[in-house]
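Revision sheet: structure tokens.
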Amino acid sequence: MDLDKLVAHFRGPLTGLIASWGASPADAVELCMDTFAEGYLARSKFRGDWNELASTGAWLRGIAYNLHRAHRRRGLRPVEPLGEHDLPDRDDLSVANEESRADQVRAAMDLLKGEYRTVLYMRYVENSGLAEIAGLLEISERAVEGRLYRARKALAEQLGGVASGAGAMPSQEADHE
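Predicted:
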């Protein structure tokens, strides 16, 4: 088991997956690192081949899911409402407009089906490759492409954009169905 190699390969997609389950960005990063630590400690229980990304990704996903559930049950870091003193003081309207649009996109993503939200977070928030996403979700790369296409289309509809989904999210590769 080459832990450095596993962390380098799965850190981004796993963080995105955990965030898609509802964890805050900071908690997603922390839970991701906890997943690697738990995985390393329990490495003798892994029955697959460390070089096979699909089985390794599925095993790590299971550990991450269990850690996330435990985290939610404990209610760590309860969400506190923002006060007026917590909001940044900005004079630049273009920055405010960009932040407003980002808030709209985040709110629209929260309304999407879980499988769509998951692939969007993994692909565009964590910049994960199709192979990494496919390995963690135990689906083919072609299925990831299809989900991304449908997710972008659904997101565009949520945002009142073009129904085809074109331009809803930047395409890093050919992510079409």
